[in-house]
Amino acid sequence: MVVDPYSGAYADAVVAPNHWSQHSGQTVIVDASAATKVTRDSYSVRVPTPASTPVDSAGALSLFAPIAGTPDPGSAKAIAKDIVQAKGWGDNQYNCLVALWNRESGWNVYASNPSGAYGIPQALPGSKMASAGPNWQSNPRTQILWGLSYIQGRYGNPCGAWAHSQSSGWY
Q1: Judging by beta carbons within 10 Å of its beta carbon (0-12, 13-18, 19+), is residue 47 exposed, middle or buried?
Q2: What pTM was computed for the model?
Q3: Which terminal residue of the chain has fewer beta carbons within 10 Å of its beta carbon, N or C?
């Protein structure tokens, strides 16, 4: 949403306030979820393509995941980042994983839903995660290890799972 800083009015796709044309070089930065450029009159909006484009297990272009950033030390995301790196996957795979599990559970180790899905990866049923450790109900590391094993076996990598989730609404 764009708001006129002078009047507080919302931008209109058809009519812009006259004082907007008095300013040159305005820039709008948009998140890097797609590569595009839109130009109208003398204004342009460009969305950059991320330097490392995520691909699915077959090497096809997957849908972009937002850049996750640096996780807080000791957090579930930090544990996941360490495991992703140990598997030899890059930051793009970590970005896809963060986006996927943000949507699924918000990284809540106790997340559950009426279908029986549980934990960070929303395993269905949650008891499947017992194969990764007896503390599956409360340990983020156990849940992450199970979740990444599931993702690798079914989708090849987190970006493959993210692409599937983006197209179907589930993984």
Answers
A1: middle
A2: 0.64
A3: N
